[in-house]
Specification:
single chain, about 325 residues, alpha/beta, Rossmann fold, 2 domains, seven-stranded parallel sheet, five-stranded parallel sheet, 12 helices, about 15% strand, globular, binds (2R)-2,3-dihydroxypropanoic acid
């Protein structure tokens, strides 16, 4: 019988309170310099570890997972999205995978509304005009944007975050349309219009908000053909995963004015985003800040730790076990 604490690799430098608890519960291998591990470095760093606490963007693909030491029994990601972890490959090796649902719903829904309003009301152009000393005063035609109140908002993906976005949008008297794998019960639908086929929703979207996870089915879902089905002058918002948008198609539509503006918090290949976005005045861009509040990041970390502690200290299934689809 050994009293050794299970060893857990932290792939990133997590918030201080989270690392304090990690180090109290486990023999923690921390990453105070927040070095980014590629697959081979991650395999090397996890030598002798029982668990890995990782984050979005880590290269836990099939190749990395196949090379992990036999000691690794759980991968707990500090994120709700888990497309960076090949769950099927982990399951094959009998490694449990867990994520952090629920705790970032409100923060992400808030940033969705920020993107929606920032895009509609030309916030990027306004702040740039002011900060570059080019504001010469109020003018009746200055920076007129797209009115939000009363417009139709189509939400792709009506899970927890999509529903929280809808709740906020109702305060703007927006008419909610949504598409989801399954229709919500009336108490959650709250009068929103369900579209079984997401393509059929597009003509009703003065605003389109992407709140669906990145899967093979949603990869580059917002493409030229679907953009063509949106009303002219629609606004596109994405706070889910960049890969859901075909960047070339969206950039072309923003340039031509087919799409009035876009509010984007996530990007394919981030942080190396498509260069075309940098020059677009009508793109309101944020650097993946959806969950970036102190409260939310702590809650994500504590949830990731709940999963590690249940599994490695109590011999239980992690409460937020993710299954291969
Ligand atoms: C998540 O949890 O998936 C977020 O994108 C990280 O902020």
């Amino acid at each position: 019988m050994t009293n050794r604490k299970p060893r857990v690799l932290a792939t990133r430098h997590f918030p201080p309170d989270v690392e304090t608890r990690l180090a109290a519960s486990f023999d923690a291998v921390l990453n105070p310099e927040d070095r980014l591990y590629d697959g081979p470095a991650l395999v090397k760093a996890s030598a002798g570890c029982d668990g890995i606490m990782c984050a979005a963007g880590d290269a836990l693909n099939a190749e990395t997972i196949a090379a992990l030491p036999a000691s690794v029994r759980i991968i707990s990601t500090f994120s709700v999205g888990y497309e960076h972890v090949d769950v099927a490959a982990a399951t094959k090796r009998n490694i449990a995978v867990s994520n952090t649902p629920d705790v970032l719903t409100d923060a992400t829904a808030d940033i969705t509304l920020l993107c929606l309003l920032g895009a509609a009301r030309r916030a990027h152009e306004g702040t740039t005009m002011l900060r570059t000393h080019n504001w010469v005063g109020w003018n009746p035609n200055q920076l007129t944007g797209v009115h939000v109140t009363g417009k139709r908002l189509g939400i792709l993906g009506m899970g927890r975050i999509g529903q929280a976005v809808a709740d906020r949008a109702r305060a703007f008297r927006m008419q909610i349309h949504y598409s989801n794998r399954s229709r919500l019960p009336p108490d959650l639908e709250k009068g929103a219009t369900f579209h079984a086929n997401a393509d059929d929703m597009l003509p009703y979207c003065d605003f389109l908000s992407i709140n669906a996870p990145m899967t093979p089915a949603t990869h580059k879902w917002v493409n030229a053909e679907r953009i063509g089905k949106l009303p002219k002058g629609a606004v596109v918002v994405n706070t889910a995963r960049g890969g859901v948008v075909d960047d070339d198609a969206l950039i072309a539509a923003l340039k031509s004015g087919r799409i009035a503006s876009a509010g984007l918090d996530v990007f394919d290949g981030e942080p190396k985003i498509h260069r075309g976005y940098y020059d677009l005045e009508n793109a309101f861009l944020l650097p993946h800040m959806g969950s970036a509040t102190v409260e939310t990041r702590n809650a994500m970390g504590f949830k990731a730790l709940d999963n590690l502690e249940a599994f490695l200290l109590k011999g239980q299934a992690p409460p937020d076990l993710v299954k291969a689809s």
